[in-house]
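Sharing a chain and its predicted structure for anyone who wants a worked example. Both blocks are below, sequence first, tokens second.
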Amino acid sequence: MLSSPLDERLREAAGPPGAGARRLSDGARDAAVAAARCAGALLQAGAGESRQVEYKRGPTDLVTDMDRRSETLIVEMLRARFPDDEILGEETGLLPGAGGRRWLIDPLDGTTNYAHRLPIYAVSIALSVDGVVRLGVIYDPNRDECFVAERHGGATLNGRPIRVSTASTLTESVLATGFAYTIREQQDNNLAEHHALARRCRAIREIGSATLSLASVAAGRLDGFWEVRLGPWDVAAGALLVEEAGGRVTDLAGDPLDVSDPAPVASNGRIHAEIVRTIEEVRRAGG
């Protein structure tokens, strides 16, 4: 039986059975929300403690023990409910399954923030069916904000519908971006794109979490987001949120986004062409 204070917090975080308005027929939505909330509670409970930090590919690419604990918790919860589904996690890689369903998990998006005790991080869970993302959940435990989108079912924040902003020009827009962990080694590092867009928009924010940046575009808090290199787990849930909130998501050239190897541009739709055009100008010039 659950008995520790943390276990009690995880049980409370999962919420009552059946919470949520619109669901996939097999309860995937409720399961994803419960797993995201439980993982968020786990992360928050450990946020003030000293963390075991390791490096994946260099000093800017961190992983903590909490990344792994969060992913283990999510995988166990999803596997208990859907034992035949594939699961692609940022830390554990691909766990095989059958039937064309795949969960994409980022157990702690904003690891560097978390390791430095900056409370800007999130849990992201998406479900794709036959290669199409059908469900996306992003949970921000510090603000207790749960973003949920279901394809053709709209996007919500804590159960209330959300929509993208109405900004109509790049000049009046606030954008967000991020930089790859290989920024020190790679020439294609987003610095030139950042410079060009900074001179054309109102402001650019770099909050250290692609999932929360995408959720903020969906909620109308930001007008656009782009990045030149991300993982599938960074983008799957957030891209669906933006689309279901009335926005647009493409790759850097304005073509359909390949979620398996994403370089996304996400926006309210009205400023999308301006963002893509600016990025294309930079990249044609060899930026």
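Comments welcome. DSSP finds eight helices and 15 strands in the chain.
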